[in-house]
Amino acid sequence: MNHIKRNKPNVLITGTPGTGKSSLASVVAQNHEFQHFDISTLVKEKELHDGWDSEFQCYYLDEDKVLDYLEDTMVKGGCIVDHHSSEWFPERWFDLVVVLRSDVKILHERYEKRGYIPIKIENNIDCEIMEIILEEARNSYKEEIIVVLPSNTLEDNESNQSTIADWIQNWLEKNN
Fold first, then answer.
1. What one-character DSSP code corresponds to residue 107?
2. For residue 21, what is the enclosing H or E element?
3. Is 6 annotated as a binding residue?
4. 99: which strand partners?
5. Is 21 annotated as a binding residue?
6. Domain residue spans in the chain?
7. Using CA atoms, how far apart are residues 100 and 105, in angstroms rounded to an integer?
8. What is the pLDDT of residues 33-67, one digit of tens each?
9. Which of 76, 101, 126, 144 has its CA at a distance of 20 to 30 angstroms from the CA of residue 135?
10. 22 is in an annotated binding site
């Protein structure tokens, strides 16, 4: 497969809903002049879905539509993608996969503040306890590009920004 040389890396930030993916991704993208793709927002705004799931109160994401929409941009590099699922993205897209983990008590509070319905809260808490997102990443990407980071506090978020910034700097020095 032909790989186009990228001038900037692509980073996937994944984790159970409520772990702080979007806020972290947004700051990192802004600080490094990367494009940020919050997949949930993208699906809604660009109608990259197959309708509405009334039980979980979210859209049925159409993976093919999302992949088609992002392909040309991802090939160029300089993208931060955030989504709670990682297994359906092409492995070749990402140079770093960050899995955010949060304490379930903290997640529960975040879900209540968001007004999540009980079944959605329970489903997401179970997902975090059983490490579903982490396993998905480990089954989809090489271990050496996966970084697991805690995301419980503002200090964690700042530390995570610094960790990713250092990684990006190292990537740029090695690849340019």
1. H
2. helix 21-32
3. no
4. 14, 148
5. yes
6. 17-163
7. 15
8. 999 999 999 999 999 999 999 988 889 999 999 99
9. 76
10. yes
What tokens does 135 get? 């396993």
In degrees rounded to 5, what are phi and psi of residue 153? -130, 170
Q: What is the pLDDT of residue 3?
A: 56
The answer to the question of whether 65 is labelled as a binding residue is no
pLDDT at 80: 98
Q: Is 67 left (phi over 0), alpha (psi -120 to 50) or beta?
A: alpha
Least Cα distance to 38 among 79, 88, 90 occurs for 79
Is 114 labelled a binding residue?
Answer: yes
d(CA 95, CA 168): 10
Q: Which CATH superfamily is domain 17-163 in?
A: P-loop containing nucleotide triphosphate hydrolases (3.40.50.300)
In what helix (H) or strand (E) does residue 60 lie, and over which residues does it extend? strand 58-61
